[in-house]
Specification:
Layout: H1 12-23, H2 28-34, H3 38-41, E1 43-46, E2 49-52, H4 60-72, H5 75-84, E3 112-113, E4 116-117, H6 118-138, E5 151-155, H7 162-170, E6 180-184, H8 189-196, E7 204-209, H9 216-235, H10 243-253, E8 254-258, H11 261-267, E9 274-276, H12 293-299, H13 301-320, H14 327-341, E10 346-352, H15 359-371, E11 389-391, H16 403-408, E12 415-422, E13 428-429, E14 435-436, H17 437-454, H18 458-463, H19 468-474, E15 482-489, H20 492-513, H21 524-537, H22 541-545, H23 549-561
Parallel strand pairs: 5-6, 5-7, 7-8, 8-9, 10-11, 10-12, 12-15
Antiparallel strand pairs: 1-2, 2-15, 3-4, 13-14
Helix pairs in contact: 1-4, 4-14, 6-12, 7-12, 7-15, 12-13, 13-20, 14-20, 15-20
This protein binds 6-O-phosphono-beta-D-fructofuranose.
6-O-phosphono-beta-D-fructofuranose binds next to loops.
Length: 564
C-alpha cells in the first residue's frame, strides 16, 4: 500500500517558517529578560515528565507555525492511522502497532486489525512472559541439575539487545537480589567469551532474542552458547553424552523470543519455551514486547506492568492532546526546526543519571534507523535534510570530554538534558561539609543548560580582570538550544514514558519528512556483502580476486597478519 506524503517544503507553513527564520534573531538573554512568563509558557508535562522547551531558539510564532506545518502535512491523520493499525510501514506493507503492546487490559474499544484481535494476542503473550518470569524468579524453573537460575544471558542484537540492555541498566535498583542479566550482541568472539566468563552453566539461562531468528550474529552466538553449555555441563559431569540429554539441557537452559517460531523450533528450543510477537512490532520498538523478557525476569512482572503503563501515558497524549500541549509532537517539530531551519546535523542526549548510561545508544538505533532515509514513503527523493546523528554520554562525564564543542564550537548542537529529582543511591559527602552529592550533580545539570543558553559576553569576561588578548577565548556566545526533561525519579513508569516520548518524537519527524520510519533497508547491503566476502577472508582466492582493489588489499593484510 503506498501513501503519497505531502511535501512539507511545498506547504504554506514551510514558506512562512522560512520567512520567520530569516527575520529571527535568536537572543535568549533578551527573550528571558523581557518576557518573565517565557519559561512557564514553554514548559509542558507528559505523564511524570516536566519538559522545558524555553531554552530553544523559538518564539511563540515559531511554535505556532510548526503546529500549522504539522496540520498541513497531515500529522493528525497519520497519528490516527498508526493507532488504527493501518499499514503505515509502506515498504514492508505492515501495520505499526508498538502502541498496542502497552494498551491496558480491557481498554475499549478493542483493537482489531487485519482481522486479528490484537489486545487478546498481546495479553496472551504477556501472561506467558509473566508466568515464566515468576517461575524463574521463584526458583521453580530449574536447570538440568535442579538448581535455580542465577544468571540470564540475553543473546540478541540491535532492537533485540539495546532496549532490554538499556532498561536493565536503568532499572538496576528494581532488579531482584540473586539475579543478574548479561547481554551479548556482537559477533566479535570477545563479546561472548567475556559474557560467559565466570558463569556456572547449571544456573545460567539463555534467552535467544531475535525478531526474525535469522540474524547472523545472534544465531552464531546462540550456537556457540549452546556448545558452551553442553561442554561445560559435561565437563562437570552433569550431562551424559547422548542426544536426548543434550536436547533436555537445551530445553532447560534456552528459551527464545521471536516472530518466527518455526525457526525457533528448528534450533531445538521447545515452542513451549518461546515467546512470540508480531511483524507489526519493529525491532527498535520492541523492548515492551516479549523482547523485554529478560527485563521482566529481572524486575518482575509488576514493575514490567508499570513500565508498560508509562509508555501508555505518553501514547495517550500523542493520540488525544491538542498539538499546542502535545509534548511528543512539539519536540518532534522542534527537531524539524533545528535540522531544517537552524541547520543542526546532530542532536546530543545528555542524561544526568548514571543509570541511563545506555540511553543515548538506545536512541541511536531508534532515531537513526528510523529516520536515516533519503527517499520518502512513496519512493520519491526527500525534499529536505532528514535524520540527525544522535549521540551522547551521561553528565557530568560528558562535561569533561565533549561539551567544549557544544559550548564554543562552530556547529549548532541541540541537546536534551535529562535528570531526576530523587537519586537511586543518595550519598552525602561528610568531609566536604555534609554536601548532598546528588544536589551537586544536579547543580551541574542546571548550570550547563544555563551556560549554553545565556553564555558569557566579552564585557563579563573583562569584568573578571581577564587580559584583553585572552578575552575572545573565554567568551561564550550562548544561544545554544537545549531542552530540559525532569522526572521525580527513575521508576519503571518514568523509563517507559521516556522511551515512548522519543519513539513518538521520531515518528513526528518522519511524518513531516514524508518517510517510512519503520523500515530499515539501509542495513541490508552490508549484511549481504559480508556473507559473500566471508570465503575470501578464510582463504578463497577466487572470491578474493573479484573484490575491488581496496577491499582486496584489506583482506590480504588480514590474511598476512593473522596469528592462527
Ligand atoms: O539489521 C538491523 C536489524 O534488523 C534491526 O532492525 C533489528 O533490531 C536487528 O537487526 C536485530 O534483528 P532480529 O531481532 O531479527 O535479530
Amino acid at each position: 500500500m503506498t501513501h503519497t506524503p505531502v511535501d512539507a517544503t511545498s506547504t504554506a507553513a514551510w514558506r512562512e517558517l522560512t520567512e520567520h527564520h530569516a527575520a529571527l534573531v535568536p537572543d535568549l538573554r533578551s527573550w528571558f529578560d523581557t518576557d518573565p512568563a517565557r519559561a512557564q509558557r514553554l514548559s509542558f508535562s507528559v505523564g511524570d515528565l516536566f519538559v522545558d522547551l524555553s531554552k530553544n531558539l523559538i518564539t511563540d510564532d515559531t511554535l505556532a507555525l510548526l503546529q500549522r506545518l504539522a496540520d498541513e502535512v497531515g500529522l493528525p491523520e497519520r497519528i490516527g492511522a498508526m493507532f488504527r493499525g493501518e499499514h503505515i510501514n509502506t515498504t514492508e506493507d505492515r501495520a505499526v502497532l508498538h502502541t498496542a503492546l502497552r494498551r491496558p487490559r480491557g481498554m475499549e474499544p478493542a483493537l482489531v486489525v487485519d482481522g486479528q484481535h490484537i489486545d487478546d494476542d498481546v495479553q496472551e503473550v504477556l501472561a506467558k512472559v509473566y508466568a515464566f518470569a515468576d517461575r524463574v524468579r521463584s526458583g521453580q524453573w530449574t536447570g538440568v541439575t535442579g538448581q535455580r537460575v542465577q544468571t540470564v544471558v540475553n543473546i540478541g542484537i540491535g532492537g533485540s539487545d539495546l532496549g532490554p540492555a538499556m532498561a536493565y541498566g536503568a532499572l538496576q535498583p528494581y532488579v531482584a537480589d540473586g539475579l543478574e542479566v548479561r547481554f551479548v550482541s556482537n559477533i566479535d568472539p570477545t563479546d561472548l567469551s567475556a559474557t560467559l566468563q565466570g558463569l556456572d552453566p547449571a544456573t545460567t539461562l539463555f534467552i535467544v532474542a531475535s525478531k526474525t531468528f535469522g540474524t547472523l550474529e545472534t544465531l552464531t552466538n546462540a550456537r556457540l552458547a549452546r556448545a558452551w553449555l553442553w561442554e561445560q555441563l559435561s565437563t562437570a559431569g552433569a550431562l551424559s553424552d547422548d542426544d536426548a540429554a543434550r536436547a533436555d539441557a537445551v530445553s532447560k537452559h534456552f528459551v527464545a523470543v521471536s516472530t518466527a517460531l518455526d525457526k525457533v523450533a528448528e534450533f531445538g528450543i521447545d515452542p513451549e519455551n518461546a515467546f512470540g510477537f508480531w511483524d507489526w512490532v519493529g525491532g527498535r520498538y520492541s523492548v515492551d514486547s516479549a523482547i523485554g523478557t529478560s527485563l521482566a525476569i529481572a524486575v518482575g512482572p509488576q514493575n514490567f506492568e508499570a513500565f508498560l503503563a508509562g509508555f501508555h501515558l505518553v501514547d495517550e497524549q500523542l493520540r488525544t492532546a491538542p498539538f499546542a500541549e502535545n509534548v511528543p509532537v512539539l519536540m518532534g517539530l522542534l527537531n524539524v526546526w533545528n535540522v531544517n531551519f537552524l541547520g543542526a546535523h546532530t542532536h546530543a542526549v545528555l542524561p544526568y543519571s548514571q543509570l541511563l548510561n545506555r540511553f543515548p545508544a538506545y536512541l541511536q538505533q531508534l532515531t537513526m534507523e528510523s529516520n536515516g532515509k533519503s527517499v520518502r514513503s512513496d519512493g520519491s527523493p526527500v525534499t529536505t535534510a532528514t535524520g540527525e546523528v544522535f549521540w551522547g554520554e551521561p553528565g557530568t562525564n560528558g562535561q569533561h570530554a565533549f561539551y567544549q564543542l557544544i559550548h564554543q564550537g562552530t556547529q549548532l548542537i541541540p541537546a536534551d538534558f535529562i535528570a531526576v529529582a530523587t537519586p537511586a543511591h543518595p550519598l552525602r559527602d561528610a568531609a566536604a561539609g555534609d554536601v548532598d552529592v546528588h544536589e551537586l550533580f544536579l547543580a551541574n545539570f542546571f548550570a550547563q543548560s544555563k551556560a549554553l543558553a545565556f553564555g558569557k559576553t566579552a564585557d563579563e569576561v573583562r569584568a573578571e580582570g581577564t587580559a584583553e588578548e585572552l578575552v575572545s577565548a573565554r567568551v561564550f556566545a550562548g544561544n545554544r538550544p537545549t531542552t530540559s526533561i525532569m522526572a521525580p525519579a527513575l521508576t519503571p513508569s518514568v523509563l517507559g514514558q521516556l522511551i515512548a516520548l522519543y519513539e513518538h518524537i521520531t515518528f513526528v519527524q518522519g511524518v513531516v519528512w514524508g518517510l517510512d520510519s519503520f523500515d530499515q533497508w539501509g542495513v541490508e547491503l552490508g549484511k549481504k556483502l559480508a556473507t559473500e566476502i566471508a570465503p575470501a577472508v578464510s582463504g578463497d582466492d577466487d572470491v578474493l580476486k573479484h573484490q575491488d582493489a581496496s577491499t582486496r588489499g584489506l583482506i590480504e593484510f588480514y590474511r598476512a597478519n593473522r596469528a592462527h
